[in-house]
Fold this protein.
Amino acid sequence: HELRTPLNAIIGFSDMLLHREISGDLAPKQAEQVGLIRDAGNHLLSVVNAILDVSKIESGSYLITVEPFDLKPAVELCCAMLEPQAAERGVTLTARLPHGLGQVLGDRRAVQQILINLLSNAVKFTPEGGHVTVNAASRDGTVRIFVNDTGIGIGNDDLAKLGRPFMQVQNDYTRQFQGTGLGLSLVKGLVKLHGGSMSIESAPGLGTTVTVGLPAATPAECGVERDTAGETAGGETGERHGIALRKIA
């Protein structure tokens, strides 16, 4: 709260100024400067949130609420949120999910956080005219989500570094962008909380595909109202019908 509260105040007052709720109309230059303050505040708040989330995951205090949910609406929502960023960069963002995919057994908010981080990275490191595609498949009790881009790609030496907190691949292209390297670290932690898997395939100049595997909900689970008071440690699945909260130690 000591970090978030003042940042939320800065963002809130900036919005009020931009929407003329405090001091009336702003001159164009003033509006531009206030907009920069708001954008910087939002960026810093996202960094603070990521640091706190990664810290909670590493300390074992991050809890997820596990329930069956449809993946397609979650993917469509995340794509809609990232579409303005993609359009600004001249990147095409497409979701191609098959019918009859089935439901994921997981925390909807956490899965959306996984998707937003992966899509944001893909768009960020894909040059103008490139493509970012999301698709999925269900097999053997696992729903696999594929985020593919036609971006700059990553060499084998750098692939091993990805997912470490504050670690970002450095090359002539990535140096154009500011970043903390927390996004993939957070994704890895959230995937682990679900008992899932993540892999990255990439080659310089050919793009990157990130594959996330999450538990698929069984037909029985899709019809069962879940207990929201259960908890388990260590990322273990436990009794599938009795666990609603999952914690990693």
In short: The CA atoms of residues 23 and 75 lie 40 Å apart. Strands lie at 63-65, 67-70, 92-96, 103-106, 131-139, 142-149, 197-203, 207-215, 231-232, 245-247. The helical segments are 4-18, 28-59, 71-89, 108-124, 156-159, 182-193, 219-222.
